[in-house]
Design goal:
Elements (H helix, E strand, L loop, with lengths): L2 H29 L4 H29 L6 H25 L2
Helix pairs in contact: 1-2, 1-3, 2-3
Length: about 100
């Protein structure tokens, strides 16, 4: 894989994380006005999503430094982590729109 492909992939994920951050900030403001039971669920799901997002961000930092010759091996794990956070964020965003 060419280094440019690696950079493009990492940039795509970074851009998506930034987009989600903006959407989540809007939902956090709305979350302040939820009923107590809904607010508790909101905060639990937000905490889970933030944990997975932090894990992915840390992982991205780690793989950015990996040698290009092992990028294909690392990419599979990155795809798995990306799928997990995507699912979590999508559920959160759809639940608390």
């Amino acid at each position: 894989m060419l280094p440019e492909d690696k950079k493009a992939y990492l940039q795509k994920i970074t851009d998506q994380l930034a987009e989600w951050e903006t959407k989540i900030d809007v939902l956090k403001a709305k979350g302040e006005h939820l009923a107590e039971e809904a607010k508790q669920e909101f905060e639990e799901q937000l905490a889970e999503m933030n944990e997975k997002r932090a894990e992915l961000a840390t992982y991205l930092d780690e793989i950015a430094d990996k040698a290009d010759d092992i990028w294909e091996e690392v990419r599979e794990e990155a795809e798995e982590k990306w799928g997990q956070i995507t699912s979590t964020v999508d559920q959160f965003l759809s639940r608390f729109k």
